[in-house]
Design brief:
19% of the residues are buried. With 217 residues, the protein is of the alpha+beta class. The strands form 2 sheets. Strands 2-1-5-4-3 form a 5-stranded antiparallel beta sheet, sandwiched between helices.
């Protein structure tokens, strides 16, 4: 007969085994594996490719956040065009692990400034160090950015984000004609383009001389 302490230890051990993560990976929008971290050594080869094909070619619209493929549970979220996913062989709480993925995305963004494919590729060493701190042998640990800054001191490589310049709108009428005044003034000049102050002494034009061989009369 098992004692109360031994029964409690067995329950806690079974609880932590059920909560264990087998593998974590980040996929690009094209399906390329950017980050892949195995925690228990029992992940199947090619699991990320099989997962991406299943999600991309899902028959009924978008795939659900929890997918079961070959006895392995895949949980994922999409952030910034990237797919953050983890696998487990146990029947886990989906809400807890989806919250863990959202917190991981927030931690990566807090450290790198932006959550893009370029930022993840340039800071992959930092990302692996953060994964070691957040998941210890597949068991979730602290996922607070303030807490992790006490243990992870690597400086990230910042990625500059360029905002697209607005496209100028072409003018449909480049040379608009002046609209006539619907209520003209009675003293308005009917010829506005005429010179209002003509020269009182216009220059005299020279008279042409008569052709040679002719006498003036």
């Amino acid at each position: 007969r098992l004692g109360p302490r031994l029964r409690l230890r067995l329950r806690l051990k079974s609880f932590w085994v059920i909560m264990a993560v087998n593998r974590f990976f980040i996929l690009s929008p094209r399906g390329d594996t950017i980050i892949s971290k195995q925690y228990r050594g029992d992940a199947e080869p090619g699991a990320a490719d099989a997962f991406f094909r299943t999600v991309k070619f899902w028959e009924e619209g978008d795939a659900p956040p929890v997918v079961e493929i070959g006895g392995t549970n895949y949980l994922y979220v999409k952030k910034g065009g990237l797919i953050l996913a983890l696998t487990t062989h146990f029947n886990v709480s989906p809400s807890m692990y989806l919250e863990l993925l959202n917190r991981l995305a927030k931690v990566f963004k807090d450290y790198c400034g932006v959550l893009t494919e370029e930022a993840i590729r340039k800071n992959f060493i930092l990302i692996y160090e953060l994964l070691d701190e957040v998941l210890d042998y597949g068991y979730p640990q602290g996922s607070s950015t303030e807490l992790l800054r006490n243990y992870v001191h690597n400086e990230p490589i910042m990625v500059r984000v360029f905002s697209p310049s607005p496209t100028p709108t072409p003018n449909p009428n480049p040379n608009p004609k002046p609209k006539p005044n619907p209520n003209p003034s009675p003293n308005a000049d009917p010829h506005p383009n005429r010179n209002p102050h003509p020269n009182p002494n216009p220059p005299k034009t020279a008279r042409s001389s008569p052709p040679a061989g002719r006498c003036r009369t």
